[in-house]
Amino acid sequence: MAGADPLLMIPGPTNLPAEVREALAGPGFYHRGEQMAELIKRCTAGLQRLMGTADDVLILTSSGTGAVEAGITSFLSPGDRVLVVEGGKFGERMAEIARAFGADVTPLAVEPGHAVRPDDLATILRGGPFRAVLCAHNETSTGVTHPIAEVAAAAREAGALTIVDCVSCLGGVPVCADEWGLDVVAAGSQKCLMLPPGLAFVGVREDVWERTAGAGMPSYYFDLRKARESLRKGQTPYTPSTTLIAALGAALDLIEAEGIEGVFARHHAMAEAARAAMLAAGLELFAQEACRSDTVTAVRSPEGIDSVELVRVVRERHNVLISGGQAELRGRIFRIGHMGLVRFEHIERTLQAVADTLANLGYECDANAMILAARQAANAS
Amino acid sequence: MAGADPLLMIPGPTNLPAEVREALAGPGFYHRGEQMAELIKRCTAGLQRLMGTADDVLILTSSGTGAVEAGITSFLSPGDRVLVVEGGKFGERMAEIARAFGADVTPLAVEPGHAVRPDDLATILRGGPFRAVLCAHNETSTGVTHPIAEVAAAAREAGALTIVDCVSCLGGVPVCADEWGLDVVAAGSQKCLMLPPGLAFVGVREDVWERTAGAGMPSYYFDLRKARESLRKGQTPYTPSTTLIAALGAALDLIEAEGIEGVFARHHAMAEAARAAMLAAGLELFAQEACRSDTVTAVRSPEGIDSVELVRVVRERHNVLISGGQAELRGRIFRIGHMGLVRFEHIERTLQAVADTLANLGYECDANAMILAARQAANAS
């Protein structure tokens, strides 16, 4: 690990604030004592504010995918018909998980870069009944934010549960679970929450427990009913990552100190900045205008430039990490994460690195103009 | 967290060395880059040495229970008959997991404090066929180490897989997976490995992949076939806890620096010390002599003393954490963990605290005599 730390502008893991790193270096502690119970209580309250819910938020020791699995397997049963919004890798993952545990999956294919149209969803739901609608709120692979409130409204209208993957947006954009009627919300630590990977969270609307009484796919570690029982005692069913939970406390303190609305506004401003800069460079954003994510920006690689190469050079010459495309988008797009600890100086450094690299690869662009456009967009937001 | 850090003498989480805490405070980093691939390679090699295997060891982001679930669900199928050694909470947990995923479980009840008798096991196995034998190597709840090499031999003889929970002993006592024929070995980070909770490990004997081709219970996050595929690229299927893996590297370096044999010898010496002190105090060890664990010592609470109270006073007056009994052993035993970062000074401080508290609760014992016995036993080991 020689040299300066790289700047992480990938869509997670993200840069860690000093306060979080300090908390990570704390002493080991007992996972069932009063200290832990108080910490879990405080963290739960902070997560509830970020999720916009007064109901339970369960803390799991896993990556975000574990939370999605927990949300699916705890409330659905094998054979249940579920409608899954697929417009990228993380929507597809929800379908894979549901299928792995025996659900009868109907995919709703959405063109990558586009958001799901609630009308399309409603039409398919009328051909139901479906037990649940599964959707990623923020599709990390394409930089698209789906209109999740409208998805939930359509699902509720059709009597289906709404199970949402908010892994790459919770803490960066408003999630109003109670207001929007999100039944199950899964999230992870290593995105907007400025933590290392290893913790995951599931918010569960209070009436879901009863609505799904008796349901369940095979599960043990991810059985949320057990997690809920333990939460009543300020515990988790199995030894949780004490260290990461201590760091979660520190991260939530930082978010509260900045103000939740301020954090969301900053994410929006940094997203506006990134988007404006790319447009100023004559590049095309991959996501349609109405659904562009405030936590990750996907950009089409210019004609003749392989984004794998772009990402490599940006890393090697500038010590800045951005991401390429996944699966069929490999080589075709690059992605800039602007989530968690991201300020304008980070955007600026990234733009400089991207502009310089694009120029070296044969695509002329003006770094100063990009940065100017970014600054104006951030200020105007 | 006012005051000095408590001394953790519970059977996990354990005390964290300065080097591990420093690694935990490191910067965030990308989970699919070269840095991670090298780290995973180095950690895998270290874990292989501790497990005594040349085969794959997969790193999971979960607590130890997740590793046990992964080991069971990846290689067994619903309806499979499995024999589970139950002599305490963690054996029972293996049975619970197997049942949750549809296995046909035959429990082999072992009296708490006793080790399973391989002959009993062989007898039941002859009434098979069984697909697998599930056994905790070190039963944390009773301080018993089961004769796992003989268990594995009996299982192999009967054509059954051996799936072992080594969560609370890997890194503290020899585990010779290849030599003993352990097919699947699950372990966790927060015990002998001197790490916080949040990482788990599964060693898989090479021929198991083929022997179980086509098998599998519903799983996704814990699907070890996917983990194995990713390991070939120095990755994990889902974002792992980068920070904890960096700390794992630091912990394995400490173990290598001390020497693996030295680490095992130190664990044995500390266990001998704890046991000798308890006997010198006239207390009764809960585990039978032949099967006493080198990582946790369970002691019967003296007549009239509730171990819940003992544990509470030891914590509040002496800032030392020991454990009580679980389930039906609650109040009846107390347990001293001596795993990971444990040296004689820690044992001594613990004995002083326990002796003082026992005396206050009405059980006379001589702290100096206990410490002397401990020191002699440690030196003689």
What is the strand and helix layout of this fold?
The structure is a homodimer of 381-residue chains.
Chain A lengths: L6 E2 L9 H7 L9 H18 L5 E4 L3 H10 L7 E6 L2 H12 L3 E6 L8 H9 L5 E5 L1 E2 L4 E2 L2 H10 L3 E5 L11 H4 L3 E5 L11 E5 L1 H6 L12 H8 L10 H17 L1 H21 L15 E5 L6 H12 L1 E2 L1 E2 L8 E5 L6 H17 L6 H14 L1
Parallel strand pairs in A: 1-12, 3-4, 3-5, 5-8, 8-9
Antiparallel strand pairs in A: 2-10, 6-7, 9-10, 11-14, 13-14
Provide a descriptive summary of the structure in words.
The structure is a homodimer of 381-residue chains. With 381 residues, the first copy, chain A, is an alpha/beta fold. Chain A has two domains: 18-256, Type I PLP-dependent aspartate aminotransferase-like (Major domain) (Aspartate Aminotransferase, domain 2); 259-380, Alpha-Beta Complex (Aspartate Aminotransferase, domain 1). Chain A contains 14 helices and 14 strands. In chain A, the strands form four sheets. In chain A, strands 2-10-9-8-5-3-4 form a seven-stranded mixed sheet, sandwiched between helices. Chain A has a three-stranded antiparallel sheet with strand order 11-14-13, with helices on one face. Chain A has a two-stranded parallel ribbon with strand order 1-12. In chain A, helix 10 (242-258) packs across helix 11 (260-280) and helix 13 runs antiparallel to helix 14 (367-380). Chain A starts with 6 loop residues before the first strand and ends with a helix. The interface between A and B is large, with 56 and 56 residues.
